[in-house]
Design goal:
274 residues, five-stranded parallel beta sheet, Oxidized Rhodanese, domain 1, alpha/beta, 2 domains
């Protein structure tokens, strides 16, 4: 298995590696208002990965929309990221935005990228030091888009899937939001789910802020692995879908996609409004 996740011990032992780039993708707050108790604490040598303002398409009407290759390249280069960089991503909620950033680098063809298992809370829990400021002294990087195709599915793909049943959609939201019995954090749209999708809440693959064991994840994804269709992961706006995607990658590496607009785009364009 590739090193899609690394431990706190691994990161501590490799902090002095000149090729290592640590990215803090911590959100200011989540869609449901969750905030970290570890504000203004940073892992030494970490650089700030501004998912919302630098690495999303700000012209889109939907949140967290995937940026163009040129935007992603430019923003990555400004962070001093090179084609040869070993990237480790974390966030201050444990496992939340970091898998989204991991997937973005993978989608743009960068293979040497991992998520810090447990993120900043686990780093602190194990007694490691933090600093108050991000690393800001580095040269412009030479990162470039090295892939041929970005593994994204769009609204039209998901609409066609209702008839074709080509893809298995896996929704990472809570059971209540999936079944329409719990309100969406974005008050303008109703809850519910896309036809032909199944529900695995992202919380099911985590335990105490860490990914569950390979054995436990294998059991969770057993029926999905046996399904021969390609997988498309979805959630509210394309962030927590990547938690489930990464968890599944830890046990089987088949072709997988993200529906980038997720439920927010689907509900809006289907006029499922409140």
């Amino acid at each position: 298995m590739k090193d899609y996740i690394v431990s706190v011990d691994w990161l501590k032992d490799n902090l002095d590696d000149d090729n290592l780039v640590i990215l803090d993708s911590s959100p200011i707050s989540t869609a449901n208002g969750s905030e970290s108790k570890f504000k203004n604490q940073v892992i030494p040598k970490a650089r700030h990965f501004d998912l919302k303002n630098q690495f999303s398409d700000l012209e889109s009407e939907f949140p967290n929309t995937f940026p163009s290759p040129s935007q992603f390249e430019w923003a990555s280069q400004r962070l001093g990221i090179n084609k040869s960089s070993k990237i480790v991503i974390y966030d201050n909620l444990g496992i939340h935005t970091s898998p989204r950033v991991w997937w973005m680098f993978k989608a743009f063809g960068h293979e040497d990228v991992s998520v810090l298992n447990g993120g900043l809370p686990e780093w602190i829990k194990q007694g490691n030091q933090t600093v108050n400021e991000y690393e800001s002294t580095f040269d412009t990087g030479d990162f470039t888009f090295s892939g041929e195709e970005i593994d994204i599915k769009y609204y039209e793909d998901i609409l066609r899937n209702i008839d074709s049943d080509k893809y298995l959609l896996v929704d990472a939201r809570s059971i209540g939001r999936f079944e329409g019995t719990e309100s969406e954090p974005r008050k303008s749209i109703k809850s519910g789910h896309i036809p032909r999708s199944i529900n695995i809440p992202y919380t099911e693959v985590l335990e105490n802020g860490l990914f569950k064991s390979t054995k436990e994840l294998t059991e969770i994804f057993k029926s999905i692995k046996e399904d021969k269709r390609e997988l498309v992961f979805t959630c509210g706006s394309g962030v927590t879908a990547c938690i489930i995607l990464l968890a599944s990658e830890l046990v089987f590496q088949d072709k997988k996609y993200v529906f980038d607009g997720s439920w927010t785009e689907w509900a809006t364009r289907q006029n499922l409004l409140t």
